[in-house]
Amino acid sequence: xxxxxxxxxxxxxxxxxxxxxxxxxxxxxxxxxxxxxxxxxxxxxxxxxxxxxxxxxxxxxxxxxxxxxxxxxxxxxxxxxxxxxxxxxxxxxxxxxxxxxxxxxxxxxxxxxxxxxxxxxxxxxxxxxxxxxxxxxxxxxxxxxxxxxxxxxxxxxxxxxxxxxxxxxxxxxxxxxxxxxxxxxxxxxxxxxxxxxxxxxxxxxxxxxxxxxxxxxxxxxxxxxxxxxxxxxxxxxxxxxxxxxxxxxx
Length: 250
Fold this sequence. Notes:
Elements: H1 2-28, E1 38-49, E2 53-64, H2 67-87, E3 95-107, E4 121-135, H3 141-151, E5 155-162, H4 167-192, E6 195-207, E7 218-219, E8 236-249
Antiparallel strand pairs: 1-8, 2-4, 2-5, 3-4, 5-7, 6-8
Helix pairs in contact: 2-3
């Protein structure tokens, strides 16, 4: 009985193995799927518009032997600066404190004859209050800078000119980029002797204007007496890159 059972199992196993091997060979011999006939092109479009917002960063810095005196002097000057900003039409929502710090100032000693060095001694404190101001009237930038310097701002950073709503510029840049991509695709397919088909896919990468490199911290003289700081806003250029995938017709 045992011998008969083993023979039956062997008889069933052999056809299964043969069937599996035949299927594997058949799959291996199938030709690869034909490659999709497409062409991918890229192009960039640009549009320039005049900025309508200036973002200005400046600081009031005060030094004194005690932290309290330095902070009081700093607060007095900063209150005058903020009042001047509001008198020029800058709204409270466009004035933001971006940094406030109280730093001890040290006096360092030279090594003694035996090589030891006394620990640094605190000789005063420096208080820095930095504002980030959004000026929506570009024409007032020079006048505002002049006024805040006279009222106590003695350290400056950078000015960034931007746009409140650059969507119209991006739209123009997109149209230009797509037109250039289509023209490039037509030129390539005509040169290759093939026919250009429909657009299969469109990818976009929008790029805002590059901000200026931050300037190093520069001192502003308290006695500055400018009628108005000369400021040139120029233009902002918005760029859009598109990648278009076209089918190629037979």
